[in-house]
Amino acid sequence: MSIQTRNSKFIIVGGGIHGVYIANALLKEGLAALDDLLIIDPNDEPLSNWKAVTSNVGMDYLRSPKVHHLDTEPFSLKKFARNRSYTRPLFIAPNDRPSLDLFNNHAGVILEESRIQERFYHGLVSRVSLHKNSASVSVNGETLNSQYVILSIGQGDNISWPDWAVAAKQHGAPVTHVLERSFSRLRLSDTATVAVIGGGMSAVHTAISLAANDRKIMLLSPHPLRQHDYDSDPGWMGPKYLTSFRKISNPKERRAVISTARNTGSITRDLKKKLLLLEKRNQCKIYTDSVVAFTPVSASLMQIRLSGGDVFGVNQIVLATGYNSTRPGGEMVDQLASNYNLPCSECGFPIPDVSLRWHKRLFVTGALAELEVGPASRNIIGAKMAAGKIVPFLNLVLTN
Ligand SMILES: Cc1cc2nc3c(=O)[nH]c(=O)nc-3n(C[C@H](O)[C@H](O)[C@H](O)COP(=O)(O)OP(=O)(O)OC[C@H]3O[C@@H](n4cnc5c(N)ncnc54)[C@H](O)[C@@H]3O)c2cc1C
User: Fold this and answer.
1) In order of start, what are the domains of the chain with their CATH numbers?
2) pTM score, whole prediction
3) Positive or negative CA dihedral for 55, 222, 306, 204?
4) Best of 38, 45, 53 for a ligand 1 pocket test (most atoms within 8 Å of beta carbon)
5) Tens of pLDDT along 300-347?
6) Which residue lies with its CA nearest to atom 3 of ligand 1?
């Protein structure tokens, strides 16, 4: 893309699920022509982070149902599935959840039809500047201008590493995090004893997909297995719970409601069944405990001590400990908040208005929008919910 074409009406920071959904919604609603959009992301292509984490954990089916996808039309994925033949079921129970292949192939068609990829610009935004009638971003040493900036940055920069694991890594121990781009399951030996740390979907997917004949898997979950079909109750996707949520004016109270509503560290019933079957077949051992100490023994052997006193020797440690609960976006968002005195809750997260404007030139989605969108904000449906707030606002200001 040449520099002349890089100034646009909308700059979307982040080309993941949320950034692509918002771009597609702006195009479909006629609020933007292709040239009006610029999507900036450090990866080579859209949805890279999504594809990396889902492949790293070995996920085969989504947790969310078939109406959660990248198109604006609810039954688009169902229609897309009609004439396809795949080697395994396209949807599974409960809740008709699509296979990852189907979801990704459908997303590929959305990208192709919308031609969004043509407006994809490779780079990491280091700064966002807000002005009275415009906004600009700094990327690759250039300043790019737009009328609006939309932050859809996900949480990839906010991966949670326990302190003992940081120390182990510093000792050169083979400790990796499954949500990191650098993770590679190919580097895990077929005969290793692998400790998978965590108790949620990522950990259990990882444990199941790594289990193999001669490889011993230990799943160390800090809590007993928790079973929930969704990340949060579907009532959080509509008026059932959101009507009363929006009446809460205190952001601290909203944060408390979100924390309670999220089924953090839980797994779906099918995944629990698969895991327990592996345990029965002695292919995976499940411990409800946490690592408190680590001792290197040799280049390929570590000793881990659990809080209950047990000590185990393992060859590899794979963390599936999710994301930190702090505000994502690092210095870029910190500077933005402090330079423009943008409203933040005690938890550090933005307090956007009902249209998800954190400033009159800046919108947020995903985790950054959750104090307004609610517990489902980080999910795929959260992108649709965000677009449902941003698009009507822009429709009003840009078409009058
Ligand atoms: C293993 C796994 C499985 C999941 N399964 C489901 C599921 O089945 N259903 C569901 O609803 N949700 C699921 N989720 C949650 C899921 O992550 C989100 O729904 C979705 O990926 C979030 O999209 P996003 O665009 O916010 O973040 P991402 O997909 O992470 O995209 C954000 C993008 O922003 C870019 N970015 C960040 N900072 C900058 C910057 N400064 N400049 C430029 N670009 C930047 C990043 O590089 C990234 O490409 C799952 C999560 C995980 C980890």
Assistant:
1) 3-157+325-398 (3.50.50.60), 163-228+263-319 (3.50.50.60)
2) 0.97
3) negative
4) 53
5) 899 999 999 999 999 999 999 999 999 999 999 999 999 999 999 999
6) 54
